[in-house]
């Protein structure tokens, strides 16, 4: 076999190793003045204690003279306590600033304020105690925590003056760091009564009742009859909850739904509920509520406030939308919850306490964790697998404590109990759907009698069947209804039933409000008038009433609420013919829009952090012009938060709205992406300039975005003569100084992560003869010049598609080139780089191209280039013909082998620590597609065509013109294979002497082309390996069933899928339900493993993943189904766009000797896996410094926004989000919410030669906590530990929660997420 070996030796072997310019920043010691002041404080403290001792001695002498033995004993106890306090006081410094009189200031007095004994802690700078340069008296808020530092007149009256000592602004007080335990901790699985995947594997997925869709059988009826005779069972209690489910977009756009339905619903509620004094209602979608509030008359606003304050209208969940739980990443999921909660606090002064999630298509365990962190009392879910519905009903376990899947070693006891950290009491609605027909009881045909919406002109099954309640039929109807309610309550041990009365966009007509209320009122009054006869308590109520009632009845009962870990994916309802219908299609549907959401998420987060720091820097430095710009721009951040939040709706990011509605969402996302890029530009301009900003408009994004339905285009950097170039603080002299008259361009790299990172950055230039200089003016040794191809850059296409399945001749662009280089970026930093003309040595960085047809484009390319220039193909890049045989890429860590015909990866051969080749590992990449079942596979559902002999089809066979391009350079080599316009697939490895060398980069450009091409196609990429990812032992069998022959137990593959970028779940194949029921959602990654190896695939956006056969891992890339799947949308999915999918592929070693871990461990990615996932989700942003119109001066080469060091490796800065002013909500306040997430990682898993990867150099492991964290040069007034959405104090879990003087004292458990309210001082 002839092979071409493309490696990083030979031509490029003389390149120097990348030097890691790592700098350490030791903690600063206190100055001599501070030491003397500390000694004086200690002396004063000792004098006060000595004085108190002498006073006590005199008092004790008087007591002693009385001769009382009791007094003597009491005196002895007091003396002992006092001596202990004395030794404690002289053994530690006094952190409380003292006023001139020596008395403790309000900063010390404030501790202990509030219901949990912890209020705002004052006087903090750089996350340490604040000392001002000049003594001055300040008023500091002395009340307990408030969500957004509300400055009302009542609060100002409570403020007390504080005097502070003059200390240099750069000095700080050191606090003891929190001990976070072992650097390499072990995560275990929680101990719970119910584990989702264990129970799910035992279900009967084709029960006898599927055709009727009613699981209530003779067994349930017999149990119900026994319960009615049980005198010990508590009486029936019914809570009737009127509701209206309002989708912020589905069949109509968000705005159209508001105008046609939601506005009228809210208007009717505030009017009619003043008339109907005992009617209750719930509302969830704050996006609609905010729109209504802004347009409502003040009298209606006040009426709503009264109804909310009285508890008759309950705000449930309180998120901006009812979020999808499969495709949404943790950042936008939490951000939309914060946006809704902050709006509610500022406008209605209400804090939601109960979750209401009745329409997402399956439920994950991230939402309960977030709601628990927001101090919720419970949550209600609806759409889970029909087999789960039956199981919970049979077990009477529909109310359970949803518990995180993980725990740390030694964390026992409270885990899984109601009220424990991260756990949430959850109620599963026991029947099919949240409509009246599907929720009053087990028999829908009876429930239809009690939907009293009868609107002239509407003809529905309920309007025909339902009869209004009269004096003549009230007894009969009440008895009929109570029979259904009692059966519902029989499914729970407490005999309480929550009965929703509503449906989609209900109560939008005055007639319906009257009919529903008046008829239910007659039934309720009749039952309560005959309470003894019916032994029933029934009333209108809210979900909070339900949770209060069941807690009351279950208090002291044993067993109490069962604990549950896992999730409820994949959701399934039932087809009309009585077969399962799995909702796994929407995990992948419309990936272009999912990627658009990820792009806004990235840019919004980056803008939030920059804006918070730039705005408060301007405030503290009194830069009025910058403050005005920031306050003017802040409204754009608000709109971006809301547009991103709107798209997390369960019919938006899922891709399950009509095509016109999806376009409306996309235009909102696109507009906010543009605005957030401009916000970053503005903030970067402020932070780069020293002193008062004098220049504006000189920061420009590298991307040009023409339209929401096109990929962003990279623009080439504009280079100007050296005399006119940007002049910065330190780069205009020394090694980095440009020669006179030489062309130079400058750009800024913004690292939005709170850790140092090493990244491969690509930059477009107009000429290949360039070099790159870093912020210190040092030339980068590791750069590479690549061509820009017409097949990867749509805007450079000249020869386009010629015939079906073929493409025109491939050529390189003569106008643009790609510079690839290795950038070392400090944590949360802005670094200025320069690109400069290099005539001398640039050719050593030029990549070599191997391609059979690429050289043919030189003639035509030269003909179209401007006069005086030549085509890049012949002069700039050495293009060689691709020899026959398999293709081989190699770097110091691995060797990849590709098939010569298909161009796809075949094997990965890793190298040991001595750089010797190990045994090859099979790692085939395959592209294929499932054939969609017509009318059974659509936007929501995924089902393969049962009429085809093979479920899969070869989608590439129709593309006969296959091109393979090999690029080899000093820092990267890749193989790109092109199958017409349908697929461009690239696999790349690196030679950077960093941890990136152990990973494989994969990129796919997918274009389904206009329909009817690729119809009924579910495209996937499959990795086929020899990893033996088989379940370690047979699953525990149901003791009620006969034992199964162990020899017939199938080998069930296992894989681990991430959920919302927050946690991972184990997925074990269930053979009984086919591929559609074994596809699971991933948001950032998935992995398979055996006792030797782990293969991890990381991605940029939400999609479906599966491991249906041993050794395989696949991800769905795109879908096209021409037919509707009869789930309400009413149309197929044909609006595909060219979509770019990016992945990291990682092969790592598993630790030895972990075959049977007891207790079972909780599986999470390695540290490198987490770092690559974060880098893929939040890449560095590149901005050009434009100095064409005016020369720039006084710019900083580097701005480190964490000057005292990065956050620990596993602590992710989820957001730093400025809070709106509570009185002027379109303006920013001085407070911001900092959300930190300690991402779990497994440090026992690593690539071969893990220490040689350089991870320790980039981010060394530590157990010392956050350390001396400081944001820029900003001073802080207070740090408050809050609930996750910032509305309340955090639950009391540790003493430091409400005694925060410095973030160095904060404790974060592995996997834990916490929020802190930072209030910045008015002056630095």
Automatic annotation (TrEMBL):
User: What InterPro entries does the record tag this protein with?
Assistant: Gal_mutarotase_sf_dom, Glyco_hydro/deAcase_b/a-brl, Glyco_hydro_38_C, Glyco_hydro_38_cen, Glyco_hydro_38_cen_sf, Glyco_hydro_38_N, Glyco_hydro_38_N_sf, Glyco_hydro_57/38_cen_sf
EC number of the protein: 3.2.1.114
- Domain named Glycoside hydrolase family 38 central is located at 581-669
Provide a Gene Ontology MF annotation, just one: metal ion binding
Going by the record, the broad EC class of this enzyme is hydrolase
Q: Which UniProt keywords apply?
A: Glycosidase, Hydrolase, Membrane, Metal-binding, Transmembrane, Transmembrane helix, Zinc
Coiled-coil ranges (or none): none
Q: Name one GO biological process term.
A: N-glycan processing
- Its transmembrane ranges are 68-88
> What cofactors does this protein use?
Zn(2+)
Q: Member of which family?
A: Belongs to the glycosyl hydrolase 38 family.
Could you describe the subunit structure of this protein?
Answer: Homodimer; disulfide-linked.
**Protein's UniProt name:** mannosyl-oligosaccharide 1,3-1,6-alpha-mannosidase
The species this protein belongs to is Drosophila pseudoobscura pseudoobscura (Fruit fly)
């Amino acid at each position: 076999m002839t092979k071409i070996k493309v490696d990083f030796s030979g031509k490029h072997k003389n390149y120097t190793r990348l030097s890691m310019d790592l700098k350490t920043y030791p903690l600063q010691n206190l100055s001599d003045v501070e030491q003397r002041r500390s000694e004086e404080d200690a002396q004063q403290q000792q004098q006060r204690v000595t004085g108190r001792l002498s006073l006590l001695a005199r008092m004790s002498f008087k007591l002693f003279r009385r001769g009382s033995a009791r007094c003597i004993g009491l005196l002895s106890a007091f003396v002992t306590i006092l001596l202990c306090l004395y030794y404690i006081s002289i053994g530690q410094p006094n952190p409380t600033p003292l006023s001139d009189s020596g008395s403790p200031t309000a900063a010390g007095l404030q501790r202990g304020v509030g219901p949990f004994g912890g209020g705002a802690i004052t006087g903090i700078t750089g996350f340490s105690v604040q000392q001002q340069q000049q003594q001055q008296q300040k008023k500091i808020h002395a009340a307990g925590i408030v969500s957004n530092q509300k400055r009302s007149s009542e609060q100002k009256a409570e403020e007390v003056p504080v005097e502070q000592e003059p200390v240099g602004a750069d000095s700080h007080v050191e606090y003891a760091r929190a001990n976070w335990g072992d650097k390499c901790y072990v995560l275990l699985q929680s101990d719970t009564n119910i584990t989702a995947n264990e129970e799910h594997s035992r279900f009967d997925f084709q029960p006898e009742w599927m055709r009727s869709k009613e699981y209530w059988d003779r067994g349930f009826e017999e149990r119900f009859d026994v319960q009615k005779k049980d005198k010990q069972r508590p009486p029936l209690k019914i809570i009737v909850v009127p509701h209206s489910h309002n989708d912020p977009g589905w069949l109509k756009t968000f705005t159209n739904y508001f105008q046609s339905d939601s506005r009228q619903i809210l208007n009717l509620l505030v009017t009619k509920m003043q008339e109907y004094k005992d009617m209750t209602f719930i509302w969830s979608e704050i996006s609609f509520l905010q729109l209504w509030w802004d347009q409502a008359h003040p009298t209606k606003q006040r009426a709503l406030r009264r109804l909310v304050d009285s508890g008759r209208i309950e705000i449930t969940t309180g998120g901006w939308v009812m979020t999808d739980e499969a495709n949404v990443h943790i950042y936008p999921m939490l951000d939309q919850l914060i946006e809704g909660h902050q709006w509610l606090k500022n406008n209605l002064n209400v804090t939601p306490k109960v979750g209401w999630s009745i329409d997402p298509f399956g439920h994950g365990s991230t939402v309960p964790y977030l709601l628990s962190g927001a101090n919720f009392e419970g949550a209600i879910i609806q759409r889970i697998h029909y087999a789960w519905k039956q199981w919970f009903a049979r077990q009477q376990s529909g109310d359970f404590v949803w518990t995180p899947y993980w725990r740390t070693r030694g964390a026992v006891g409270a885990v899984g109990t109601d009220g424990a950290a991260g756990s949430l009491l959850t109620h599963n609605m026991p029947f099919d759907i949240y409509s009246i027909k599907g929720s009053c009881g087990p028999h829908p045909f009876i429930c239809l009698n009690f939907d009293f919406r009868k609107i002239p002109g509407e003809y529905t099954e309920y309007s025909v069947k339902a009869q209004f309640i009269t004096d003549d039929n009230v007894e009969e109807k009440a008895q009929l209804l109570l029979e259904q309610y009692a059966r519902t309550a029989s499914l729970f041990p407490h005999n309480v039933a929550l009965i929703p009365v509503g449906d989609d966009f209900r109560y939008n007509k005055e007639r319906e409000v009257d009919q529903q209320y008046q008829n239910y009122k007659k039934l309720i009054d009749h039952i309560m008038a005959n309470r003894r006869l019916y032994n029933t308590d029934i009333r209108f109520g809210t979900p909070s009433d339900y949770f209060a009632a069941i807690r009351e009845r279950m208090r002291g009962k044993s067993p109490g609420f069962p604990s549950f870990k896992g999730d409820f994916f994949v959701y399934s309802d039932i087809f009309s013919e009585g077969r399962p219908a799995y909702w796994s299609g929407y995990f992948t549907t419309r990936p272009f829009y999912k990627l658009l959401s990820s792009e806004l998420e990235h840019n919004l987060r980056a803008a939030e952090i920059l804006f918070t720091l730039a705005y408060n820097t301007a405030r503290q430095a009194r830069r009025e012009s910058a403050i005005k710009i920031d306050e003017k721009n802040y409204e754009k951040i608000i709109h971006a938060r809301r547009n991103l939040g709107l798209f997390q709706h369960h019919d938006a990011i899922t891709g399950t709205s009509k095509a016109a509605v999806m376009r409306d969402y996309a235009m909102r996302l696109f507009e906010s992406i543009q605005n957030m890029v401009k916000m970053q530009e503005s903030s970067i301009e402020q932070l780069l300039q020293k002193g008062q900003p004098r220049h504006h408009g000189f920061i420009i994004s590298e991307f040009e975005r023409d339209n929401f339905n096109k990929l962003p285009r990279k623009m080439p950097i504009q280079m100007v003569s050296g005399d006119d170039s940007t002049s910065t603080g330190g780069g205009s002299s020394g090694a980095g100084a440009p020669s006179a008259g030489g062309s130079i361009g400058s750009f800024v790299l913004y690292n939005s992560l709170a850790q140092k990172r090493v990244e491969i950055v690509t930059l477009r230039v107009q000429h290949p003869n360039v070099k790159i200089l870093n912020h210190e003016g040092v030339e980068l040794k590791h750069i590479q010049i690549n061509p820009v191809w017409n097949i990867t850059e749509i805007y450079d296409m000249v020869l386009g598609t010629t015939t079906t399945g073929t493409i025109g001749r491939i050529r390189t662009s003569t106008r643009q080139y790609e510079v690839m280089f290795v950038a070392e970026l400090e944590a949360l930093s802005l670094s200025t780089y320069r690109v400069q003309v290099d005539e001398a040595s640039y050719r050593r960085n030029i990549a070599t191209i191997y391609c059979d047809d690429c050289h043919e484009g030189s003639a035509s390319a030269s003909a179209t280039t401007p006069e005086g220039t030549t085509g890049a193909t012949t002069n700039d890049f050495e293009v060689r013909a691709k020899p026959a045989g398999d293709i081989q890429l190699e770097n110091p860590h691995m060797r990849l082998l590709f098939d010569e015909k298909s161009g796809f990866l075949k094997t990965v051969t890793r190298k040991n620590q001595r750089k010797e080749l190990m045994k090859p590992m099979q790692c085939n990449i395959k592209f294929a597609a499932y054939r969609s079942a017509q009318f059974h596979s659509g936007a929501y559902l995924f089902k393969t065509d049962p009429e085809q002999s093979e479920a899969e089809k070869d989608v590439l066979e129709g593309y006969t013109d296959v091109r393979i391009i090999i690029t080899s350079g000093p820092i990267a080599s890749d193989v790109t294979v092109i199958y017409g316009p349908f697929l461009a697939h690239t696999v790349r490895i690196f030679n950077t002497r960093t941890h990136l060398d152990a990973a494989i980069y994969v990129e796919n450009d997918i274009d389904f082309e206009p329909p009817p091409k690729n119809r009924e196609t579910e495209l996937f990429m499959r990795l086929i390996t020899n990893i033996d990812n088989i379940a370690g032992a047979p699953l525990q069998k149901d003791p009620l069933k006969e034992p199964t022959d162990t020899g017939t137990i199938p080998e069930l593959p296992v894989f681990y899928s991430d959920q919302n970028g927050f946690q991972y779940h184990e997925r074990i194949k269930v053979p009984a339900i086919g591929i559609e029921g074994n596809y699971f959602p991933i948001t950032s990654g998935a992995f398979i493993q055996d006792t030797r190896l782990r293969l991890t695939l990381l991605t940029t956006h939400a999609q479906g993943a599966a491991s249906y056969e041993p050794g395989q891992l696949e991800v769905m890339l795109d879908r096209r189904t021409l037919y509707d799947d009869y789930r309400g949308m009413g149309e197929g999915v044909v609006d595909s766009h060219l979509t770019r999918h990016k992945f990291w592929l990682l092969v790592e070693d598993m630790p030895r000797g972990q075959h049977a871990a007891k207790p079972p461990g909780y599986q999470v990615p390695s540290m490198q896996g987490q770092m690559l996932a974060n880098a893929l989700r939040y890449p560095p942003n590149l901005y050009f410094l434009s100095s064409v119109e005016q020369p720039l001066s006084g710019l900083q080469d580097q701005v480190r926004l964490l000057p005292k060091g990065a956050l620990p490796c596993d602590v992710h800065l989820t957001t730093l989000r400025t809070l709106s002013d509570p009185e002027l909500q379109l303006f920013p306040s001085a407070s911001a919410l900092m959300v930190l997430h300690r991402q779990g990682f497994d440090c026992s898993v690593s690539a071969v030669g893990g220490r040689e990867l350089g991870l320790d150099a980039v981010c060394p492991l530590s157990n010392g906590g956050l350390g001396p964290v400081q944001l820029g040069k900003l001073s802080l007034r207070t740090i408050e530990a809050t609930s996750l959405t910032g509305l309340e104090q955090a639950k009391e879990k540790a003493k430091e929660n409400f005694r925060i003087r410095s973030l160095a004292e904060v404790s974060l458990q592995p996997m834990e997420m916490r929020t802190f309210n930072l209030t910045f001082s008015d002056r630095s």
